[in-house]
Amino acid sequence: MRSGSSSRPEWDAYARAIGTNIQRQRVARGYSQDRVAYEANLSRYTYQKLEKGESRPGTPANPSVRTLLAVAQVLGVGLAEILPGDAPDLSVR
């Protein structure tokens, strides 16, 4: 069985890519972080950490589907435009 730490580098990179994709979509629309956070019903701090791919310093983000859907809806995009194509393998073997 793999431990959580063995997949951590893969998840860290994936979480950062989600944040980068969200930031790219936000900037393309000319929205501020405050606007997206408010309209998605998130705190500004939570949204800023999401864009960084962190939940707190040194810990990768693990946003809920609800959070991702809310952000996607505010930005007017589908989840496919936020989620990177190459998802890490998180299954236990």
Descriptive account of the structure:
It is a single chain. The protein has 93 residues and is mainly alpha-helical. The protein has four helices and two strands, in the order αααββα. A two-stranded antiparallel ribbon has the order 1-2. A hairpin with a 2-residue loop joins β1 and β2 (59-60). It is globular, with a radius of gyration of 13 Å. The N and C termini lie close together (5 Å).
What key attributes describe this structure?
single chain, 93 residues, mainly alpha, 5% strand
> Rg to the nearest angstrom?
13 Å
In round numbers, the mean pLDDT is 90
Strand order of the largest sheet: 1-2
What structural class is derived from the secondary structure elements?
mainly alpha
> Major sheet, described briefly?
2 strands, antiparallel
| Overall strand count | 2
Portion in helices: 55-70%
Please work out how many helical segments DSSP would assign. 4
Describe the secondary structure blueprint for this structure.
Blueprint: H1 4-29, H2 33-39, H3 44-52, E1 54-56, E2 59-60, H4 65-75
Antiparallel strand pairs: 1-2
Helix pairs in contact: 1-3, 2-3
Nutshell version of this structure?
With 93 residues, the protein is mainly alpha-helical. The chain is 57% helix and 5% strand.
